[in-house]
Amino acid sequence: NFCVIFITFEGFLSRAGEANFPLAKMAAQEVQPSETIAKLKSESEALKTKLEEERAKLHDVELHQVAEKVDPLGQFVMKTRRTLKGHGNKVLCMDWCKDKRRIVSSSQDGKVIVWDAFTTNKEHAVTMPCTWVMACAYAPSGCAVACGGLDNKCSVYPLSLDKNENLAAKKKSVAMHTNYLSACSFTNSDMQILTSSGDGTCALWDVESGQLLQSFHGHAADVLCLDLAPSETGNTFVSGGCDKKANVWDMRSGQCIQSFETHESDINSVRYYPSGDAFASGSDDATCRLYDLRADREVAIYSKESIIFGASSVDFSLSGRLLFGGYNDYTINVWDVLKGTRVSILFGHENRVSTLRVSPDGTAFCSGSWDHTLRVRE
Amino acid sequence: SFINADFNIFRYHVAVMCLENIMERVIVSMQDPDMGMKMRNQRLLITVIPHAMTGRDIVDWLIQKYTITEEEALHIGNFLVKYGYIYPLKEPRNLCLKQDETPYRFQTPYYWTSTRWPASELDYAIYLAKKNIRKQGELIEYEKECYNALHKRINHTWDFVVMQAREQLRASKQRRKADRIVLECQEQAYWLINRPPPGVMDILEQGPDRRNVANTRVQLVSGQMLAIFVKYCEQYQDHDPIMQGCLPSNPWITDDIMYWNMNSETVTMPTKLRVERWSFSFMELLNDPLGRKELLTYLEKEFSAENLCFWQACEEVRHGEASKIAAKVDEVYKQFLAPGASRWVNIDSKTMEKTLEGIKHPHRFVLDDAQMHIYFLMKKDSYPRYLKSELYKNLLAKAIVPQETKKSVFPFMRRQRHSSPSPALVTQTAEDNGKAKPSAAKANAGTASQI
């Protein structure tokens, strides 16, 4: 490990007389003649092997080992089928309507647009009174959308088809946080919204009254994402934050019932595996991971040495076999969830991918990007 | 302008460090004495620059090291240049990787983005002044603007700026030409990143500031536990349109919405795949409105339809408006729980007692226990029998297997992409039907409004 001393302004001045030869001042925490490094390397390799031997003795496995006999996937050809242009600035978030073809998207300049992605027609537009609208969600009924961002609120807009009606007039302010809104989601109905915020909490709200129904405390820093569990009893959700933790919560009691901390940086996105038995996460540490809820631990890592940039957004295909990850290097990597290998890399966006969702019937997925566009791909 | 965006974006914060650490790992391995890149002297006009490499070398090394395609290697290599870890010796203003004989060099760690020594106005002023003194007309348009703006803003220290610039130029003249060229390129690359010209993407922009923190319990998991994922993926594989395609065709590919029409909530005859899926789990049956309808029909035959109705009513309490909870709970009590109720549900006495006590002070979750009891009753008892019933088997036998429609080969025969009524319209019409005609007519006039 090296650490670099910050060259202060004073330091710069004092060297002003010298030749401006850029000397890298490296203060090492440890001695590093090359023999010591080699020795440490081999020591760590030996420890790793020993650890794996011990785990194997206890029949401890990872998902890709269990999936060894599964047929590998063939080549995937996924093309962009629709490009949605209309935002004047970075697209930050999107969500699908239950009708499988409409979407809502939000951007840095405060615009929230509802599209029929199939025809690429814009159907509604709202201008929020704030910039960086980082969260948006479609109501289950298809009759409203929720959004928020730097205004620290989550507001619900009923969708009116009257051309003359100003959507902003009927806006309902539902959630109030003390820092930016990072994510929002309706629960099983139009009547409740779950939010996560830069203030470190998540909260459940009654839409009609704006009443806080439950709040969730436990993250040590900004909460960036959440997803509701598709379980039979429908009572839990998972959140991910800048404290590198993914927490599972009981919606009824407000308690954190499970916590996972294996990422090395902010968790930007969490999404449940379709059966609800696990969830995937995407992080600034350039990896995606799968956490098994019954085993209470990480069971797969999706990473590659050539993937340097953070994953901003993840979602599963309908069967859970594929995991799509949108990354900050403008690409989408497609992973074989069972085998842990990368199946495909998709280019096309011209800036970072900020949001990605598979459609409700799994026929396509949509990605939104800082390049101002959204793309629907199959 | 040095001010970026409309609120306090701090360009350097912890999350960025992760990216840079990862990038630096790549750079360090590129410079590994054994496995790293082979560097050589590169000729730049009449000067020979040592320790350089070509763009082609860089791409080839990345391909070989990470087992990736040329496209991906070029993509990554470009970022290494854009983030200032590698800079070009020719066309130094153009920070991109060319996959040819163009020479590049590794940036000195002193100038690495992660080093984070604050790129102050004073430093930039000295840099621009040096350029201006060295060669008249060297500054390009936006640099001239910056220079003039700086001259105004830090005018009080301008003498110092010019003195510094002159001093640094004098010192560099004493160097060999090769060294001088390298140092100028390094510095120029650094400033191109820290003061990007207008129109060039600012790679340091990160979005709203975040608070972070600076790190496990070891648990064991057996192969049996993980087998459920393999099983689930296999079971749903044929139902995954991205994996296996769908019949008649994927609407996004062929522009034909037959698939959506055939699978809508209100079809008279569902597809075979859809009916099969109801057998995967009780949740699948319940989540499909058509499946739920079929289940209700079956339960009516068995005289236990009240179970499903009760479950549904409980859902509405749990997910409905807070203000309506008391009224809804009362309705549920009257219909399903009261002695002699018309649709009385059979719950065990303990749960019933607890529930009846609870609804005296109704809240959102007061019916949870009763609901769960009825849910598992249906799941363990009614559901398996439904799957074995004639009703289900007949439906499965009659269910449709659509014919495949292929994408039209001729572009001019491309299908029209039909609009569909907005879900908001459907609800509005339903509301309006209760009101006067005129508003219903307006709601029905064509598709949703254009922006």
UniProtKB/TrEMBL annotation, chain A:
Keywords: Coiled coil, Repeat, Transducer, WD repeat
CDD domains recorded: WD40
Xref: Pfam families: WD40_Gbeta
Coiled coil: 37-64
WD repeats: 84-125, 174-215, 216-259, 260-301, 313-345, 346-378
GO biological process: signal transduction
Xref: Gene3D superfamilies: YVTN repeat-like/Quinoprotein amine dehydrogenase
Signal peptide region: none
Family: Belongs to the WD repeat G protein beta family.
Subunit-level organization: May interact with RGS9; this interaction stabilizes both proteins and increases RGS9 GTPase-activating protein (GAP) activity, hence accelerating the deactivation of D(2) dopamine receptor-mediated signaling.
The protein's name: Guanine nucleotide binding protein (G protein), beta 5a
Organism: Pygocentrus nattereri (Red-bellied piranha)
UniProt lineage: Eukaryota, Metazoa, Chordata, Craniata, Vertebrata
Automatic annotation (TrEMBL), chain B:
Compositional bias annotation for Polar residues: 419-431
Domain spans labelled RGS: 281-396
Region (Disordered): 415-451
SUPFAM superfamilies reported for this sequence: Regulator of G-protein signaling, RGS (SSF48097), Transducin (heterotrimeric G protein), gamma chain (SSF48670), Winged helix' DNA-binding domain (SSF46785)
UniProt-listed CDD domains: DEP_RGS7-like
Molecular function per GO: GTPase activator activity
Lineage: Eukaryota, Metazoa, Chordata, Craniata, Vertebrata
Record bears the keyword Signal: no
Residues annotated as transmembrane: none
InterPro entries given in the database record: DEP_dom, G-protein_gamma-like_dom, GGL_sf, RGS, RGS6/7/9/11, RGS6/7/9/11_DHEX_sf, RGS_DHEX, RGS_sf
GO cellular component, one term: plasma membrane
GO biological process terms, semicolon-separated: G protein-coupled receptor signaling pathway; intracellular signal transduction; negative regulation of signal transduction; regulation of G protein-coupled receptor signaling pathway
Protein name as catalogued: Regulator of G protein signaling 11
UniProt organism field: Pygocentrus nattereri
